[in-house]
Amino acid sequence: MTMAKVKKEIKTIKIDLSKCNGCRSCEMICSAFHAEPKYSIVNPERSRIRMMRDPIRDIYVPVYAGNYAPAECMGRLTMRFEEDGVEYDECAFCRDACDSRDEFKEPDSKLPLKCDMCEEEPPLEEPLCVKWCIYDALTYEVREEEVDEAEELDDVEVGINALVDKYGMMKLVETITRLNAKEE
Predict the structure, then answer these.
(1) Phi then psi for 95, rounded to 5 degrees?
(2) Stretch (H or E) spanning 31
(3) Of the candidates 154, 130, 150, which has an alpha carbon nearest to the alpha carbon of residue 140?
(4) Among the four residues 51, 68, 160, 177, which has the most C-beta atoms within 10 Å?
């Protein structure tokens, strides 16, 4: 079975590490934007962009959330170092949410977070982290690419898949059944 090629709009945030000073304004505005109700609280744990520090090169690395990965990488132990009592490995700079770490997970539910480029109605010109970066370390880019057409999961499906991976299908079905019975 061959997949058809389609043109897809690719949105990305480019990062210029030479301009980033680690001020974390990107984290703050992202967490406020995604708060319920919107802008009601600032909690960096809910942010879809995180500031990481690379002490070996003495740079700050803004990392925005990517896809959910149901399994951890095999190469994550190739580089480990400690700085100021904090242990880092190459996993710390990964964009994916996975079961081996807590980054890019909703702090209460542990559901994976993914950068949505602050898309809402009406649409914003650019993600708020880019807009609020006063040093222009973050820039927004939209380009068209020809890609294989594939079915994409919506947010609910991604969340359910994460719960199934963590607790198993039977536990999830039992919980939903029990919660549904309480509502009736």
Answers:
(1) -85, -15
(2) helix 25-33
(3) 130
(4) 68
